[in-house]
Amino acid sequence: MEKRIAIAAPDRIAVARYGGLTVDAWRWIGTLALIAVAAALPFTLSKYHVFELTMVMIYAIAVLGLNILTGYNGQISLGHGGFFAAGAYTAAILMHRYGVPYWATIPPAGLICFVLGVLFGLPALRFEGPYLALVTVAMALATPQLLKYFDTWTGGQQGINLAKPVPAFGLDRDHWLYLLILVVLLVAIRVAANILHGRTGRALVAIRDHPIAAAAMGIDTARYKTLAFGTSTMFTGIAGALSAIVIGYVSPESYSLFLSISFLVGSAVGGIATIGGAIVGGFFIQFVPNLANDISDAAPWAIYGLAMLLFMYLMPHGVVGSLGPWFARLAQQIRPPGAAVGKSADEYKRWEA
To answer: What tens digit of pLDDT does each residue of 241-251 get?
Structure first.
């Protein structure tokens, strides 16, 4: 006699639901709510604070570019301040000498910095770790001197004064620039997420973690390293162009070695291998030096260094890198009243075969 076997068949796939919506739906709602709050925020603040938050977003774009290179590909750069300056001067020269609209200078700045990053990344392939960091330091040190040397184009020591952009939609200039850069930041985050969460991102991480194994698996390490360098500098160059538009002035002294170090510090504090950490890094770059000056006029950099050490001691993986997994575990443990999680295995219908 043929033996009958009971097979469990799910009535439906178990999907976590909160208030009738899936987790992904709630994530989209939360993201849209945060964007709405960020868009409304400048209309409740003074012009000075709006300017500060605008600079936070600009620095976040630059740190995001550095995160792609250092956090996801493992290449240390202390020269991104030079690419930030290249983007700023590209926008300034196009606006000042050729009358190009401010919004039209952003793509050329990103493209030129992408090309510079690729050209710089090719010889940098021969170096690793601290040796690569020393090579990139040369970029940061040489940039201010080169800007002074080509004074016919760059204005030399005096720099270039730029006309403030005309706002659109009848908005105040500060509010308009804030919203414009918010849009650019959101686009940058989306582009970075698409790159890093796809095949390219997996290749970059594989090269960072196990370069020999990655090469053995057929990954073109030279190509992906160069692509990472170019993409990273493109983000940083766009941020530089935006800074020139917002500040309305560029000069060689604004792009010293300390700017490059600030980008690396902001990346480490926010979370060097995260996307959201770039925003935290932007806040650190903009506000911590000012707070250090307010606390102590005699030794502001001692306060700055102490703040950096405190962040690294309490959150060694950065703010987002350390708190992100904790929030994820907390969200999994929370089950609000009425949350449906589908049917369990005991509730499955059974039939005989």
So the answer is: 999 999 999 99
Which H, E and C letters describe the chain, residue by residue? CCCCCEEEECCCCCCCEECCEEHHHHHHHHHHHHHHHHHHHHHHCCHHHHHHHHHHHHHHHHHHHHHHHHHCCCCCCCCHHHHHHHHHHHHHHHHHHHCCCHHHHHHHHHHHHHHHHHHHHHHHCCCCHHHHHHHHHHHHHHHHHHHHHCHHHHCHHHCEECCCCCCCCCCCHHHHHHHHHHHHHHHHHHHHHHHHCCHHHHHHHHHHHCHHHHHHCCCCHHHHHHHHHHHHHHHHHHHHHHHHHHHCEECHHHHCHHHHHHHHHHHHHHCCCCCCHHHHHHHHHHHHHHHHHHHCCCCHHHHHHHHHHHHHHHCCCCHHHHHHHHHHHHHHHCCCCCCECCCCHHHCEEEEC
In Å, what is the CA distance from 160 to each residue of 163, 183, 189, 283, 334? 10, 26, 30, 27, 55
- Per-residue model confidence as pLDDT tens digits over 63-102: 999 999 999 999 989 999 999 999 999 999 999 999 999 9
Global pTM exceeds 0.70: yes
In this prediction, residues 118-126 reach a mean pLDDT of 83
For residues 61 and 270, the answer to whether their CB atoms sit within 8 Å is: no
